[in-house]
Write a structure and sequence with these properties.
Diphtheria Toxin Repressor, domain 2, 2 domains
Length: 167
């Protein structure tokens, strides 16, 4: 009898694992509910999930909010949570994804300043919505500031500009 039980393959996750997954999705939903409006707009969420998030923000009763967060967790099970998690990681200053993204933006900024037009052209290939003229002007200002040993104001402007395009 025990040999038969040992031979059974349990491909399904345990009940405990399903419960942990469900709680993780609810926690992710709670982050979205408590997030400021400007950050929430950066997410590409299904319409029913977005409506549920706004509904949860409107609720005052603690118990009603708890039940609604469970509903949001249920909606998230049928949504693409990988994209949502990746966007959350990009916003979390402590995450590895955020640090990698920040480092990439710094590399683009340095390349644009050092290489000039070649760096700008490479950036435009990666981000075609970029304004070439604005980038060229900022690059020239940044080079002048380096030569004159001034504060890197244009360098900061380049960084914030490419950051706005990359998000």
């Amino acid at each position: 009898m025990t040999d038969e039980l040992d031979q059974l393959d349990y491909d399904e996750p345990s009940k405990s694992q399903l419960k942990r997954d469900s709680h993780a999705l609810q926690a992710m939903g709670k982050q979205l509910v408590e997030m400021p409006e400007g950050k929430l707009q950066k997410f590409d969420l299904p319409e029913n999930l977005k409506d549920a998030i706004y509904e949860a923000r409107r609720l005052k009763s603690r118990e009603a909010k708890r039940r609604h967060l469970q509903y949001i967790g249920k909606l998230m099970r049928i949504s693409n949570t990988d994209v949502i998690q990746q966007t959350l990681d990009m916003m979390d200053h402590q995450s590895q994804t955020y640090r990698q993204h920040f480092k990439l933006l710094e590399q683009w900024r340095d390349r644009i300043i050092q290489e000039g037009n070649a760096g700008i052209e490479a950036f435009i290939k990666a981000y075609p919505d970029c304004d070439r003229q604005q980038l060229r002007n900022l690059q020239r200002q940044a080079v002048r500031e380096i030569e004159l040993k001034k504060a890197p104001t244009a360098s900061r402007k380049i960084f914030s500009y490419i950051r706005s395009l990359a998000e």
